[in-house]
Amino acid sequence: MEEIGLLRTIFLVMMYEDNMQKIINSGLTGDLNLDNFTVSIKIELSYNSSRGDKISRSIGLKLDKSQNKQEGVNSCWLF
Amino acid sequence: MEQLHFIFDLDGTVFQVLDGINKEQDLKRFNKIFGNRFIERYSVFACDYRHLVFPGFYSLFRWILNRGDKLYFFSNGIKERNQEAVKKLMKKTFGKNYKAKLEEVEIYSREDHLDTYKSQVKNENVQGPFHGNRKKLLSDNIVDKEKIPYTVLIDNDRSYLHQGEEKNFLNVLHSAVGYYQQRFKKDLFYHFHKSYYICGLINSAIKLMKRENLTLADSLWQLQVKDTGEEFNRNFYYPLRRNPKYYLKGYKILKRLNPNLEFYCDIPETDKK
Predict the structure, then answer these.
(1) What's the CA dihedral at B221, B223, B225, B226 to 10 degrees?
(2) Closest CA of chain B from A70, distance in Å
(3) InterPro entries attached here (chain B) (predicted)?
(4) Per residue in A4-59, pLDDT tens?
(5) Which pick of B115, B211, B221, B252 has the fewest CB atoms within 10 Å?
(6) Residue range(s) defining the domain that contains residue B219
C-alpha cells in the first residue's frame, strides 16, 4: 500500500511537471524504509525555457506514516 | 538617401512561442482554423519549441533588405537560441539562398542589453517613462551614434526602451498571452497583422521624411506620438496601433512580395469607417 501511495505521488508530481514544461532531463532518487514507515523522495528536473535558459527545479517530499503526516514538501526555482 | 536600420525584437513581436499546459490543444485548434499548411509555413523551431511567426514577416524582411536597408534582431533570449531562431527565420524568408542574406543580418541577445541591476548607471538616466530591468540601448551599442536618426527599434514591450531613444521606438501590440483567445478576439485583427502595421507605418514615415526633409526618427515620432495629440508619458499606449489605415497600407505593399498574403480576420466593427 505504501509503495502504491509513493508511486501515485511520484506519478502525480511528474504529471504536473510534464504538463508545465517540456522535461529534457529528469532524475529520480529515493529510498524506502519500511521498518520506520518513512519514505523520502527527491525529484530533480531540468529543462530549457523557450528563450534558451537552463532551468532546474527540485522537489523534496517526506512521508512519515508513524506520525500520520506529510512533511518537508519543498519546491524551488533555480535560475 | 541614408541607409535605414531596423532592429526587431523577437518574442511577442515577430513570433510567439507555443507553450504551456494546453499547447497540444492549441496546435490542434490552429490547424483547424488556419490549416496545417499555414501552421507549418509559419512555424520556426528553436530550442525544441515551436514558435508561430505572425503572417507577413517574411515579406517584411524581404521588403527591408530589398530596399537596401539594414536588418537586425535584438532579443532578451540567450545567444544560441536567438541565432537558431533567426537562422530559421531567414531560411523561411529566402529559401535555399538564405545563407548570404543571413550574413547581412546582425543578431543581438541578452548580454547586449543594459542590465540596470548590474550597471552603475543611475535609473534617472536610463529608464524614461517606461520602467524595465533590461534596456535595449541602441546608440554606440547596436549602431553607431551617427546612425541613430535613421534607426528604429520595433518591439512590443515598452519597458526595453532606453531613455533618450523614444523617437527610435516603434511599438506593436503584445501578443505572447495568446492572441487566439476569446477575450482577445476584438483585438485579433491588430495582433495578427502586426507586420502589415509595421510596414505601413514605416512606409508613411519614409514618405514624410522625404517630403519634410526630416530624419526617420523624427518622422516616426511625428506620426506615432505628436499627431495623436496625446502627452507622451507612462500612460501613453501608442494609439496608432489600433488604426486600420496603416495595416491596410502595409498589406498592399507586402502583398506585392507575396500574393498569397491575406487578412486572416476582420477589422473590428467599431473601427470600420
Answers:
(1) 90
(2) 28
(3) HAD-like_sf
(4) 555 555 555 554 444 444 333 344 444 444 454 555 666 677 788 888 888 877 76
(5) B211
(6) 5-271
pLDDT at B201 over 70: yes
CA–CA min distance B25, chain A (Å): 12
The full set of domain ranges for chain A reads 2-78
Residues whose CB falls within 8 Å of the CB of residue A60, separated by 6 or more in sequence, listed in order: A40, A41, A42, A72, A73, A74
Contacts of B80 (CB under 8 A, 6+ apart): A52
C-alpha dihedral sign at B139, B232, B161, B187: negative
Q: What share of chain B is helix, strand, coil (3-state, %, to 5)?
A: 50, 15, 35
CA dihedral of B152, B157, B158, B159, whole degrees rounded to 10: -120
Task: Find which of A50, A54, A79 to mutate to test the B interface (most B CBs within 10 Å of its CB).
Answer: A50
Of A77 and B49, the one with more pLDDT: B49
- CA–CA separation, B179 vs B55, rounded Å? 13
For the record, the C-alpha cell of B153 comes out as: 527599434
Structure-model confidence comparison of residues B273 and A48, the more confident one: A48
| CB burial string B90-113: b at 16+ within 10 A, e below | bbbbbeeebeebbeebebbbbebb
Task: Specify the CATH number for the domain of residue B149.
Answer: 3.40.50.1000
Determine the angle formed by the axes of helices B194-212 and B244-257, rounding to 10 degrees.
100
Between A64 and B233, whose confidence is greater?
A: B233
What is d(CA B87, CA B186) in angstroms, rounded to the nearest whole number? 33
Closest CA to B176 of B59, B25, B26, B61: B26
Query: Which is higher by pLDDT, B243 or B124?
Result: B243
Instruction: Please answer whether residues B53 and B44 qualify as being in contact, where contact means their C-beta atoms are separated by less than 8 angstroms.
Output: yes
pLDDT above 90 coverage of chain B, percent: 77
Contacts of B47 in chain A (CB under 8 A): 48-52
Can you read off the three cell numbers belonging to residue B31?
Answer: 490547424
Total domains in the fold of chain B = 1
